[in-house]
Write a structure and sequence with these properties.
The protein has 162 residues and is an alpha+beta fold. Helix content is 31%, strand content 22%.
Amino acid sequence: QHQRPQQPDRITHRIGRLHYHVFMARSYHKAQRPLTSFPDLIAAGCLVPGLYLSQTRALSHAPAGITLLRDVNSVSTILSLCRAGFAPALLPAHIQETNPDFIVQTDITVPALDIWLSYTERARRIKRGEAIISWLKEIFSPSESSWFRQTSHKHTPTPDNA
């Protein structure tokens, strides 16, 4: 989950951080002026998952006007609209792994969301529970996946999307 659990009987670990980048279709990138600031995202009608908006509203370091982005409740819809060149999208950084056709812009900084793992002592003591907890910690490990590191994974442009 993205908010630190507050239950006193829970064991809680911050296991990663989910970074967000601006994604856009090549056709949108070529047809529009460059996006260089957060206000540019607002002006472009940037699409963003509603969950991200609800999580960032409470952050003290959230950009002014974050609620002015287009709130969409389906990532698949956001991907389809973005791919069609309708608007840029603010999505988790790992999206670039499965959508190499997008231009990824990492120079507009937006808040990252912490990822918290919470479980009971009883769950940890059960062999199957311990295995699941270990597996979750492993898949979110920075050595296993660069997407969940403390600092953002910067996209290195290739000749195709430079």
